[in-house]
Specification:
Blueprint (H helix, E strand, L loop, with lengths): L7 E2 L4 E5 L6 E9 L5 E7 L7 E8 L3 E7 L4 E8 L5 E7 L4 E8 L2 E7 L11 E6 L2 E8 L2 E7 L11 E7 L4 E9 L5 E7 L4 E7 L10 E7 L3 E9 L6 E7 L2 E6 L7 E5 L3 E9 L5 E7 L4 E8 L1 E8 L4 E11 L2 E8 L4 E7 L6 E5 L7 E6 L10 E6 L5 E3 L8 E6 L6 E10 L8 E2 L2 E8 L1
Antiparallel strand pairs: 1-37, 2-29, 2-36, 3-4, 4-5, 5-6, 7-8, 8-9, 9-10, 11-12, 12-13, 13-14, 15-16, 16-17, 17-18, 19-20, 20-21, 21-22, 23-24, 24-25, 25-26, 27-28, 28-29, 30-31, 31-34, 32-35, 33-34, 35-37
């Protein structure tokens, strides 16, 4: 028998948990990874009340989610980034002052600075944020249309920044929903929705020479009832900008370069909402989004073709999705649970592995085979392992529930080929894993 015969993965597995059990929590969430790969999420609680709070939470491997309340007034929208010193940088909409505020945590204290602008307190558009040389470039929707702002200084100086604003699109019907990213040369581009034309557009700054003023070039990416929800990201391998977006036909995707046409990822008139696109290190795109018809959070992967999986469908879930790629094949996503009115976090776990190892005792008989599933997941304490060996040819099957490794005795050595299955599911008593999509893993061997 070939030692170490690996399993065949049938479906991927996601484990979901609540970031907090507090209600009215998690609108406008923004998920980012620190340089150590630790997930951090910025979100609002009690948004509709005077007690509204902006919270930055991070997931400790041992203690779970640890929350920090940021000293702000009432607000909405929230976007998070990390500078080169791993200091968190945030941007959000101040409901009371009707301004965009940008903050940096310096020496343990939050420094918040308002961006001058003519904003609408009754209609809150998207806020987006990128860092150029550790300085924030923030985009927002105002009465003057879609705009960006950046400090003129070479370092962030709270309450003393000379904010330089630029108008991206002067039509106030454009840019309410938008997303911003930098290309490989550091030039910002913004995907955005044109309400009047019902079209997805792209705006690109004419150069990256900040703070020198520059114009923006705009063009239509998809003009057929498309783009109300959109997300843009840079492919780290090809250096192309990709946009995921909703449309009347469903979730769509387009490469924002000449000669590329939009493609349909997941059809459906009510899917593709709150989409968020991210790339793994091999340049493969992944898109998290809300299917409002099914009330589910879904993720689409591109592996030569688009493959769609349902991450969570416990109730009505999936709004305000924010996706990051941790490593190849491992993703994290935060999303809003409309049923429980709270913020959820889901992470994919490594593919299951049912490895077969032959144990040959002296004399060669009887024949023992060890079934090893210990490499299946780092969350083994919350999972149940169930083995299904061949129906004939074995002397006995030990109880496999909860055991990642079993030893099976075969009646003789002439069994030949056999097929076994390892099934891993969530333990009902698990306090962390609220929902898990199941998987079956199979391995073949000979004895």
């Amino acid at each position: 028998m070939a030692d170490g015969a690996a399993a065949v993965l049938n479906t991927e597995v996601w484990v979901s948990e609540q970031v907090t059990n507090q209600g009215d929590t998690g609108l406008y969430a923004s998920l980012k990874l620190s340089s150590a790969g630790q997930p951090h999420v910025l979100y609002w609680t009690d948004l509709e009340t005077p007690a509204a709070k902006l919270v930055l939470a991070h997931r400790d491997p041992v203690a779970g989610w640890l929350n920090e309340t940021i000293p702000t007034a009432r607000g909405a929208q929230a976007v998070l980034a990390f500078d080169s010193n791993q200091r968190p940088v945030i941007a959000y909409y101040d409901l009371d002052a009707a301004t965009i505020n940008v903050g940096v945590k310096i020496a343990g204290f939050w420094q918040i600075d308002p961006v001058p602008g003519m904003l609408r307190s009754f209609a809150i558009g998207t806020t987006s944020l990128v860092l150029i040389g550790d300085l924030p470039l923030v985009s927002y929707w105002s009465e003057a249309g879609l705009e960006v702002a950046r400090p003129a200084a070479t370092s962030f100086r709270p309450r003393a920044n000379d904010w330089r604003t630029e108008r991206v699109d002067a039509d106030a019907r454009c840019g309410f929903n938008h997303s911003m990213a930098l290309d490989a040369q550091g030039v910002p581009s913004i995907s955005y929705f044109d309400l009047e034309a019902q079209a997805l557009k792209l705006a690109t700054r004419n150069n990256a020479n900040f703070p020198t003023p520059a114009g923006w070039t705009t063009r239509v990416l998809d003009g057929v009832a498309a783009g109300e929800y959109n997300s843009i990201a840079l492919n780290p391998v090809t250096h192309d900008l990709h946009v995921a977006y909703s449309s009347s036909a469903g979730l769509r995707h387009v490469i924002a370069g000449a000669g590329h046409t939009p493609e349909l990822v997941d059809p459906g008139v009510a899917t593709g909402l709150y989409c968020s696109i991210a790339f793994d290190s091999q340049g493969r795109p992944h898109i998290a989004y809300y299917d409002s018809e099914g009330g589910a959070l879904k993720v689409a992967h591109f592996f030569n073709t688009w493959q769609v999986v349902t991450v969570d469908h416990a109730g009505d879930v999936g709004g305000f999705a924010s996706l990051v790629a941790v490593s190849d094949g491992i993703l994290d996503v935060t999303y809003y649970d409309w049923t429980r009115l709270t913020l959820s976090f889901a992470h994919s776990v490594p593919p299951p592995k049912a490895v077969i190892r032959q144990i040959a005792p002296p004399g060669g008989r009887p024949n023992f085979v060890q079934l090893d599933g210990s490499g299946s997941t780092p969350d083994a304490d919350t999972l149940r392992f169930e083995w299904t060996p061949p129906s004939t040819g074995i002397a006995a099957l030990p109880d496999g529930t909860g055991n990642r490794t079993l030893q099976v005795q075969f009646i003789n050595s002439a069994l030949g080929s056999f097929l076994l299955t390892l099934r891993v599911t969530d333990l009902p008593s698990s306090s962390r894993a609220r929902y898990m999509s199941g998987w079956n893993s199979m391995a073949r061997g000979t004895a």
